[in-house]
Amino acid sequence: MIETTDTRMEPDAPGLTAASPPAAAAGRVGVRNAANSYGIVSIAFHWLVALAVIGLFALGVWMTGLTYYDVWYKTGPYIHKSIGILLFFVMLARVVRRASNTAPDHEPNVGVLQRRIAHGVHLLLYLLLFAMMISGYFISTADGRPIQVFDLFTVPATISGIPNQEDIAGKIHWYLALVLIGLVVLHAGAALKHHFIDRDRTLKRMLGIRS
C-alpha cells in the first residue's frame, strides 16, 4: 500500500500559509539534478573542469616559450602535469555522476536538431579531454619516469620506450588541445546565444540561478 499525504494545510497551522513556496521554488539549488535545473554537484563539476581546461591550455601555450634557464622551465610542466592527472580523476567522477543522475530537460525553445548538436558536442568534449590527458601521460612517461602529482602521489610509467614516443604524443596533444579549445569557445558562444538572443534559462541553470 502506498501512503499518501494530504497536501492541504490546516488554517491554524503555525507559520504556514497557502502562499508558502515549496523548497524547490525558494531559490535553493539541490544536490541532484531536477527536471528543470542542475544540482550543485553537476554545476561544481562543470565550472571546475572549465577552469582547469582553460588554465591548462594557457599554461601549456606559455610553457612553449620557456628556455632551459627560465625559473619556470621545470615548475611549469610540474604544475601542468599534476593538474592534468587530477583532472583525469575529476572527469572519471563526472562520468560516473552523469551516468547516475540524468540531465535536466532542454528549454522548450530548443529544437530537436539543436539538442542533437548539443549532445554531440558534449560527447566530443568528453572524448577529447580523455584523449588529451592520455596523450599527455605518454609525453611525460616517455623516458620511463613516473609522474609526481603535487608531492601527493606518483603515477607509474606503464608504457615507455616507444620510438619517438614523446614527439608523437606531443603533436597529438597539441592538435587535440587546439580542437578542444575551439569546441570550448563554440560551447561558450552557444551559451551566450541562449542567454542574450534566445533569452532562455540555459546559462542561468548552469550558474545555479533558479528564478
CATH T-level topology: Fumarate Reductase Cytochrome B subunit
- Highest CATH level, the class: Mainly Alpha
Taking pLDDT < 50 over at least 5 consecutive residues as the criterion, the unreliable ranges are 1-26
Note the overall shape: elongated
Give the class from helix and strand content and strand pairing.
Answer: mainly alpha
Give the number of DSSP strands. Answer: 2
CATH architecture annotation name:
Up-down Bundle
What portion of residues is helical? 55-70%
If strands are numbered along the chain, what order do they take across the biggest sheet? 1-2
Mean pLDDT: 87
Alpha-carbon Rg, integer? 23 Å
Sketch the major β-sheet: 2 strands, antiparallel
Number of helices: 5
Order of helices and strands: HHHEEHH
Instruction: Give the N-terminus to C-terminus distance in angstroms.
Output: 37 Å
Quote the beta fraction.
Answer: under 5%
Domain tally: 1
Q: Which labels suit this protein?
A:
211 residues; mainly alpha; Fumarate Reductase Cytochrome B subunit; two-stranded antiparallel ribbon; 2 strands; elongated; disordered N terminus
Task: Please tell me about this protein's structure.
It is a single chain. The protein has 211 residues and is mainly alpha-helical. The protein has a single domain, classed as Fumarate Reductase Cytochrome B subunit, CATH 1.20.950. Helix content is 56%, strand content 3%. It contains 5 helices and 2 strands; from the N terminus they run αααββαα. It has helices spanning 40-63, 72-100, 112-140, 165-196, 202-206; strands spanning 147-149, 153-155. The chain has a two-stranded antiparallel sheet with strand order 1-2. It is elongated and about 55 Å long. The protein starts with 39 loop residues before the first helix and ends in a 5-residue tail after the last helix.
